[in-house]
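Reviewers of the previous submission asked for a worked example of the structure-prediction workflow described in the proposal, so we include one complete record here. The input consisted solely of the amino acid sequence. No template or homolog information was supplied to the procedure at any stage.
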Amino acid sequence: MRSWATLLVLLFLTACPGADEGAGPGPDARAPKASPRRAWWVLAEGSWRTLESPRKIDRLVADAERLGVTDLFVQVYRGGRSWFPSESADPAPYREIIEQGAPAPLPRLAEAAHARGIRVHAWFNVLRVAKNRAAPLLAAVGPDAVLVDREGRSLADYPGFEIPLPDRLHLRMGSPGLWLDPATPGVIEHLESTLDELVAAAPELDGLHLDFIRHPLVLPIVPGSRFDVGLEFGYGEPGRARFEQETGRAFRRGEQWDAFRRERVDETVRRLSARVPEHWTVSAAVLPWAERAYLVAMQDWRGWLEEGWLDFVVAMAYTRDDRLLRYLSHGLTGGIGGDRVWLGLGSWLFVERPERAAAQVAIASEADPAGVALFSYDALAERPEALDEIAAP
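From that input alone, the workflow returned the following structure tokens.
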């Protein structure tokens, strides 16, 4: 009986035919629609920790080539820590690699991947520093760097990174941790400096892949500050003062306040996008519900595509509900973003039921997306027997 990874990847291969053989990295993301791209997200600190040794880098590239993967979203900045030399981030992961006598991981990976026609995108966690209270950005900017909720409570003061009582009785926060407020002076500037260091360290990469480029979600999800229920963020004093200065009005919740907070996230995308080399593509991992992303998470990814700040997005259609996935897949590729929307699937959800993961790849492929990305490579890297089986003639 085939392993779950084998089933998943076999269907991934058959459902998504690859790009022309021999194509080099870095094709124009806005060119006429071609064969779907196939991608993996590669974690920096997952179970496999690919960047920590040349052997694992070679294994990643070999696996990608054998399985027809065209693009790798490789995590390089997470929780304020960097896998490249940096003075604005904590470069401890990079230093540990170098101290072990290994070469700089990103140039090494880019060289190996390009030799096989595979693109490498730097996966960059933007507005969340995980649960790292020692992140250099927080030290440089100060407490105002962290988002404040509508009750005036900083996320840095949440006990155990959980929503305080009594709200915790009926609300749950997605991806708890320390989220940054882009309205606070110094936050975007610090991110720009970190990105500049990444580009200087590995200009041969093919793209920048933005993640956590939004406000956090809290369930139940409430559409904007026009409602007096739920919980939302961005209420720090610097942001409110800037709102009053730019609008000439006293602070109050409502559509204008929502627009201001959304524009600060827009500004972050625009400014980071403007700093990358011309040959890089710029993409983002985004919420798959465009209206909810716009109203609640301050993530106007359709606008980012329209403005040309992004070349494509990867909509994180992570769900166990196949019917919902079908709705999302066809809706996302049928007009919202067209051929500039890739579909991201949460294959980790079905470790115990591989046939379900394979079925979701087939469902997504029915919508003829520009690309399909799987989260994550680590799940496959732990099962070499499956990869060997697929590689066999």
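The chain has one domain: 4-391. We consider this example representative of the routine output the project will generate in years two and three.
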